[in-house]
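Now for a specimen:

…
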Amino acid sequence: MKKKVSKIPFNGTPEQEAQLMKIIDEHKHDKSLLMAVMQKAQDVYGYLPMEVQQMIAEGMDVPLEKVFGVATFYAQFALSPKGEYNISVCMGTACYVKGSQTLLDALQEKLGIGVDECTDDGKFSIEACRCIGACGLGPVLTVNEEVYGKLTPDDIPGILAKYQNA
């Protein structure tokens, strides 16, 4: 699955940048710590926008292409911000054969965003994930840590309403 780069403008704070620069300064002596720096940067920002990748590349003295390559290769890195409510649709075999693709389609249509994207207001993001271990409840989705199972596309508006009004 190809990761999408966020369309939301980067809005890092000076405090976040100071944190990142401190992390880079502590690790720049060893280029093998690139991934650790990227993990800590994602902890600071919640994702790895291109601007942050550029700061890491310059600070660690590695090519931007290397930073981007690591960010896009490993599933743990996100190139788009996560919403206040991150919705994960299980696309594992059991859920998929029970209709998880229709749930994903309904979510994308209702929220007007695609997979690995975030709504403009920062409230919702959608991701497709592999098995979450709730196969008997398939198809399943989670909203942050809350699990919803045995769903149909008709359930989507009610689930979203719970969080839109929160």
Remarks:
- The radius of gyration is 18 Å.
- Helices lie at 14-27, 34-45, 50-60, 64-73, 93-97, 100-111, 156-164.
- The mean pLDDT is 93.
